[in-house]
């Protein structure tokens, strides 16, 4: 009778677990100076990212400032039921999606176009000047930029003075008080702030493209536009996919700083986004359980968007995932 050997066999090319642990210990001991540099980052993530996850329990409780997380009474899914019937929450969802989709449709493409334009500039000094000017708004806080916008769009500000000087309007109007214009103001001001900074990754990728590709294309008679279309953009495909995934996963996370600065009593109906709604319900009105429930729901949807966007982009990249 033939006896079957039931001993587990390691796959070819894969070391047993014991050897891998031993090799890791040897490598760590040899590189302990470098390996120890990541310990502060690991501790930071544990303290500020993982330990606070326990606080999500209050989304299922009726929590107040006089309670502890453990002593607060359970209410189950009651907070989530309130969310579904809260019209102000759904207004913030509509505003968030509208602003985020405008930023995705316009703001995602502009850094790519700007990066290509900067890359194609042959004059070094002019290229550095354009990069510096486009990067600068990123380093200014929304408190500063928001104050500038409020001043410019006031009835006596630069915007109205310019339009009246050109004869386009007869009476000054503060467009920040007009709720119908807020979505565009939020979108365009965010692009103004972040478009230059968004070119950094694209420029870094383009700097690594082999110049012989362009030389061969020139010999074949390809124009600059065709070189961009058939050489530059295909080599940027992976980083474009990565940025698209991160942008789509953040569709429900509109800029809180921008909203708090530009929102006022006149434009609140179109300016209130989910993040500002959570801030107002949690820290302003003290309804911590409800605000946590909203935040938890948004996080779950964001993870779903992240996974979906990754699946879609991997299909477009010959089943190669960038995450």
UniProtKB/TrEMBL annotation:
Domain ABC transmembrane type-1, first and last residues per copy: 93-309
Keyword Transport: yes
Lineage: superkingdom: Bacteria
Subcellular location, principal: membrane
Transmembrane segments: 38-60, 97-119, 139-162, 182-207, 228-252, 288-307
Keywords (A to Z) from UniProt: Cell membrane, Membrane, Transmembrane, Transmembrane helix, Transport
Membrane topology classification: Multi-pass membrane protein
Protein location: Cell membrane
Similarity comment: family membership: Belongs to the binding-protein-dependent transport system permease family.
Name this protein carries in UniProt: ABC transporter permease
Native species: Marinicrinis lubricantis
